[in-house]
UniProtKB/TrEMBL annotation:
Domain Enoyl reductase (ER): 13-335
Reactions catalysed: a primary alcohol + NAD(+) = an aldehyde + NADH + H(+); a secondary alcohol + NAD(+) = a ketone + NADH + H(+)
Name this protein carries in UniProt: Alcohol dehydrogenase
Pfam families, A to Z: ADH_N, ADH_zinc_N
UniProt GO molecular function: alcohol dehydrogenase (NAD+) activity; zinc ion binding
Cofactor(s) the record lists: Zn(2+)
Enzyme Commission number(s) from the entry: 1.1.1.1
């Protein structure tokens, strides 16, 4: 095979179209991956609409990639053709900026995100640096593994690096692409899990995912409800709503944490007094390195956590993208190539 199909957007805000491109060859320290599945993240919409600096067009986005290595570049060791691999938001790091020199690779000033730094996974094949590769366990299909490279690792990493310990009350704000995984991971980690969402109709789903408590944010004061349960050690804010995040702060226990992973440009309306009284903290949490992705997939396989996905073929990338934008997806759209 000398060519491949990709779903590309030719100009900012444009529609997806399927085109043929020459099959890329991996350079030194890189591998070529036959893509089997690629999740669709809301951040892909930001790339499509040119909301990040330096996004190139025509654009092939996609940073939740699962597939198999089919070619090795010069100097690659430890990997071989046929290995099942995932590539997530972390698509490589520079190694020389200050965060990298401190070992904080996910905070790299020159982070290489697939679809932003180089062509991503909305394609039949892609090339990635070996530093971006995570091994997929046998228990996970490609379609299940793909969303774990961003949605999965972000929620799992945020929880395992938070102040919460088994038995602590932890609330997950939102039950979407991130939140439905956050609730499952929180329960699997032994946390007393609260799901917060809009509407009574989501209660059964929340309990099915592992939540012991459900708060309908349209029917009750969220902070008061959390305090009635003893106060949350951690609120994992997956919903991209600053107002919804703000409403949880007074529900934190003393020395509680609001951990923000839902991306929105709107400011949080939190007063210094809310933080000072009770020694509360608010901080953001990024995704995770390739090793974090690998550990997320391993925990997922062992614990029985699974992303809830809808699959569509690559040639229907435009329709799948629109379904994600509409909020109708339950809960992660995944493109498949039939490879």
């Amino acid at each position: 095979m000398t060519s491949m199909r990709v779903a590309q957007v030719s100009s900012p805000g444009g529609k997806f179209e399927i085109v043929e491109r020459e099959l890329p060859q991996p350079g030194p320290g890189h591998v070529r991956i036959t893509v089997e599945a690629c999740g669709i993240c809301h951040t892909d919409a930001a790339f499509v609409h040119d909301a990040f600096p330096g996004v190139g067009f025509p654009l092939v986005t996609g940073h939740e990639v699962a597939g198999r290595i089919d070619a090795l570049g010069e100097g690659v060791t430890g990997w071989q053709a046929g290995d099942r691999v995932a590539v997530g938001w972390f698509g490589g790091h520079c190694g020389h900026c200050r965060p990298c020199r401190e070992g904080h690779f996910i905070d790299c000033a020159n982070l290489q995100v697939p679809g932003w730094a180089y062509p991503g996974g909305f394609a039949e094949a892609m090339v990635a640096p070996v530093s971006a590769l995570a091994r997929i366990p046998d228990e996970l299909s490609a379609a299940e593994a793909a969303p774990l490279g961003c949605a999965g690792v972000t929620t799992f990493n945020a929880l395992r690096h938070s102040a919460a310990r088994p038995g602590d009350l932890v609330a997950v704000l939102g039950l979407g692409g991130l939140g439905h995984l956050g609730v499952q991971y929180a329960a699997a980690l032994g946390l007393d899990t609260v799901a917060i969402a809009r509407g009574a109709d989501k209660k059964d789903l929340a309990h099915k995912l592992g939540a012991r408590h459900y708060i309908d944010s349209t029917a009750t004061d969220v902070a008061e409800a959390l305090q009635a349960l003893g106060g949350a050690k951690v609120v994992l804010a997956t919903a991209a709503s600053s107002a919804a995040m703000t409403a949880t702060v007074d529900g934190l226990a003393h020395r509680g944490e609001l951990v923000v992973i839902g991306a929105t440009p709107e400011p949080l309306a939190i007063s210094p007094l809310q933080l000072i009284m009770g020694s509360r903290t608010v901080h953001g949490h990024p995704s995770g390195t390739s090793q974090d992705v690998q550990e997320t997939m391993a925990f997922t396989a062992l614990s029985g956590v699974r992303p809830m996905i809808e699959t569509m073929p690559l040639e229907e990338a435009g329709a799948a993208f629109e379904r994600m934008l509409s909020g109708d997806a339950r809960f992660r759209m995944v493109l498949t190539t039939g490879k």
